[in-house]
């Protein structure tokens, strides 16, 4: 960590932030920066300053590890800010904005959060083509605290600034130039440095205007219009969180009372946001995502930890099956430069699979319609896809992924073909979500079984960020590490899990639909259940999800868990009754909801009349006393507990058995794969910090007593009981494993 200064004969001092890999703004780095720029202002030989970052990044923002250190000290419940935003604001204003020598920011790569706030305080900004600029602080439950709420509206306009802050979406270099956030755009770093030095000297000589963003008002609309824009912003879904409202409060104060009062308000509400539970939850989730690659358990009892393996570069991957999942996996690979051999059984199926991949890429291109380079790169990615109908070319594969239907015999036959066609160092992967990997590889040789692992993508694979890497007791750690490296290349978050029914994610969440069915069998309206769960923050409740997945698929997957864990499942006939009546979900136009198949959006509409008979039959099958159904009245909070506490209970089993490497992996996976609200930190964080192990254990015991027929479904596991008795958080980990 350092700040390097080079004073040139021209009188320009080039100041470089050095804090690899992304020049994060640690408080010590900021202190060094301000001190050295003060010294430059006092140096008579220095006429102007250029501020840049070392490497290909200006600065990715404030060093978030400081927030994590605070959480470790206060256990995520009581913290003070790691840095005084008010003091930093003053230093920025004194050194970058109002110092003797004008400062020009040279932005290459990214200028995010505090990095952009530094750049906006400079007299001008020169960017290298491809740079991205943004204020993503709301993703961490805070808001810009170094003047961003005041400077960005005055540089880029109020509408642009509000959208950038509320969505956390960075602006491209071209967009930034178009709205006035960037003054000059250059093709490369060398040209940008020359331009920045020339512009800095011109400003120093009075030949170019020296603009202070705090005192600009020309980009702001008239006050009444500005207030209308703010009022509309407050009603947006992305602004419903308290820290987003605090951000808008700071902007509003600056509009009404001037930028200086706005800075004071920003400093105040920044501190308020730092004390909110949502901030601690989002910081935890941020690091949970980044911590999944850091494995703490042993790969096997006889082998070294996975970090000791040197991963190989996977360049060619064979994908078996061009259906929705196979095409999605192939898309994820080709767009990141990996050659894919897509195999199907005949030409018709192959052409359909190729078309799906191309359609996925075209969809990606539409999302970057104003980014010429990105569109060209995606178009070129189509050349990485090669269609085949046999295994002749699979000798070139570094990895193969089977993505066919959940049929054990078919998968075993494919792995027998893999064993014959692939090199002896080729990774043999299956995308199964339910079948035991040892059964899939049962007919393979011992040496081959060392190369077998699960590469479980979530649908749609080209969009969902999680990759569940499943290892058996026989899987060699080298191939696991190779797959972890691949996940980074294709921009996925990996979690390494043990081999069991449902692995980690699907196993933990198998009670989701079962609990919903129990509530409906008890007499609740399925739409009331979905509404309560959506109100909790899930993208959809169990019944809307069942429609999306398909009732037939739900039945098939559910049977695996009934067979594997018969002592702790709730077996309802509801899905079977739905299947018998032809209500298969969204794909058939009717399930728990009804859909217009002619519309691409397929809006889900309640179908009370259509469901009545099916619900009555399932309730009669359940054996739950009718009197209990009539008297049952549950609040949304109780519905949430009855849905999620069995899920937490199963997560406790997964932790204790060592199926996951650490509890934080469940938090990352629950958000990325199942849509658990990130502002709650993930399933385990929510359980610990909003409920507590003692309360969850007590409620599950009460539910087991209240519903004795379903008592096994609610019975607390040993791990949860131990946490409750010892007063420990579930997330502290009490591993019985490891199984990994």
Automatic annotation (TrEMBL):
Q: What are the alphabetically sorted keywords of the record?
A: Coiled coil, Fatty acid metabolism, Isomerase, Lipid metabolism, Lyase, Multifunctional enzyme, NAD, Oxidoreductase, Peroxisome
The subcellular location is: Peroxisome
Q: Which residues form the 3-hydroxyacyl-CoA dehydrogenase NAD binding domain?
A: 317-499
Q: Catalysed reaction per UniProt?
A: (3S)-3-hydroxybutanoyl-CoA = (3R)-3-hydroxybutanoyl-CoA; a (3E)-enoyl-CoA = a 4-saturated (2E)-enoyl-CoA; a (3S)-3-hydroxyacyl-CoA = a (2E)-enoyl-CoA + H2O; a 4-saturated-(3S)-3-hydroxyacyl-CoA = a (3E)-enoyl-CoA + H2O
- 3-hydroxyacyl-CoA dehydrogenase C-terminal domain location is 502-595
Q: Tell me the PANTHER family matching this sequence.
A: 3-HYDROXYACYL-COA DEHYROGENASE (PTHR23309), PEROXISOMAL BIFUNCTIONAL ENZYME (PTHR23309:SF49)
Output this protein's name: 3-hydroxyacyl-CoA dehydrogenase
Lineage, top ranks: Eukaryota, Viridiplantae, Chlorophyta, Picocystophyceae, Picocystales
